């Protein structure tokens, strides 16, 4: 699964059930576990290192609509994703 697909799946899960983010959390935890199983040499710090490339991708997509508020929201979204990715990876 490619990284943008994971984020798309998480957003879709939240949109489908806005009052219940558990499916999104479960997806991220499963992806973290998969990385641990398939690439055990990966260090957890590499997940954090994806934040700036993720923001760059969002900026490229949004172009002039990427402002300070959008950046803050994308950083919060990334932090949410990172929390559950690491939960799965470290389990």
UniProtKB/TrEMBL annotation:
Origin: domain of life: Eukaryota
One GO MF term: oxygen binding
Protein name: Globin family profile domain-containing protein
Organism of derivation: Ancylostoma duodenale
